[in-house]
Every structure is written in structure tokens, then in C-alpha cells.
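pasting for the record
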Amino acid sequence: MIITKPTYLPIIILIAAILCGLISCNTFDYKAEIPSYIEINAITHTTNSLQGSPHHNIKDVWVYVDDNAIGTYELPAKFPVLYGGSHEIKIRAGIKTDGFNTVRNEYQFYDFYTTTEKLIRGLSTEIIPDIKYFTGITFEMTEDFEIGSIFQPASASDTGIILKAMDTLSVLGDQSAVIYLDGDHSYFEIATNNEQYTLPYGSRVFLELTYACNNSFSVGLLKNTFNGSKKINTYITLYPTEGWNKIYINYTDYIKSHSDALSYELYFSGNKDAGNTLGAITLDNIKLIHD
């Protein structure tokens, strides 16, 4: 007697055919909604006379249509939206906090750019946002080196800054501060010459800095307390660049960890890198901002 295994294949085929018949109307009669597109290839930044240079390093945009979040996009960007007709579009500028690619946030001191656009399905609408600072924030310090400098060398420094005309980035004005490091001048430390800045505990605090360098250097704070001045450990070290770079340094949590501080001074310091015959560090457009 030969025993054969039962086969269920015909039954499976029958069931599949019935199911396909039941859902075919819903599946194959569906028509996809045609999107419109928003395109953002460039972005501008406008400042007033008290807010320093409009040079920026905006990398991303956060996009909202009728206050509904659409997404975050790296510039330049072109993306679909399931809207047609006239709609309010809000755009928020995004940055790399502390210069890290992995920490990309909306910059809380930049206001929304708001526009109303007529979106046409199947077509692209280009927007060039003009970003401004929020009103009501405090520019505790701005330094563009156009009429001198508030930075002076510390006693341990064996070199200082030179104010020099730079023609590589006209948005920064006529002069920048340059520090040169060589075999006879291998360490620098400059601070804000006893200018003391009040940075409110619990507030958001950022340092904006435009720089170019072929030598690493550090950024830090001096805090003033009832017991005198004290140098806080270096907050961030910046490394050689290819041309100008702008960084947004988030001091918010750093300030929270020093509740005994009455005020602060800003400093930069660095040693000549090994292998460098002549190190050069150029600084400009420095802004210390809080809300």
C-alpha cells in the first residue's frame, strides 16, 4: 500500500483567487494623489547694524505648511507636498550645533520665514527664504574688528593679533583678526580685555564665530566669581579648515554647570601644531547671544 502526502496547493490557489477578486476593485482602482513640489536652493540672512555680519552657515530647513510639519531637508532641497492651491509656508533655518554633522537643530535665535505660495500639482515652486533673528534676543557682544579689537593677549601669550584686510569674503567687512604662530611665537591666548559679559543662568547661550585656520585652536570662557577670576576648561577645539567656516557653539548647558559665575570673559588659545612652519588663525564676526 502506497501512502501519499496530501497536497493543499489547489485549495491555496482557490482561496487566493477569491481574495484577489474581493480586493481587486479597491486595489487597482486607486488613483495616487499628484503632489506639488517646493524647491529651496539658496537662503539669505539679513541683520541690522547691531547684529553683526549676515554671514551664516545654514545647512538645513525645517518646513511647515499651514502649521503642519512637512520635514527637515538638507540644502539644496526639492521635495513633494500633498497640497495644491494657496497655502502658508513657514521655514526655519537649521545649523550644525558645535560643528557636528550628527547634531543638526533648528537654530532657536533665527525667526521663521513665512510666505504664502500658490502650489500647483505636478509643478515646482521655488522659495528663497530670507532669515532674520528673532526680536528680543540679546547680543551681549559683537566683534567684527573693523575699528580695533576688544581682544588682548594674556600674560602667558608670546604673540597677539594683527588686524588685517581680507578680500576673500566681502560680507565680513574690511578687516579680520589674524594670529600667526611660528618657531619663536608658538603659543597664543587672547581674551576680551576684562570685558565682562552677563550670561543669565538657565537662558539659551550661543557663540557664533567665523574663522579660517591651518592650525588648531581652542575656545573657552573665563568666569568671574566672588572669589576672583578662573579659567574654565576649554569648551571646544577647532581644527584646520579649507577656507572660511562659521560655527554655532552652544554654551547653554555649559553655563548651567557654573552657577557660581557672576560674569564671563571669552578667550581663544592655541599652540603651534607640530609640523606647521607658520600657523595662521583668522577670526571674524564673533557674536555672543542669549535670550
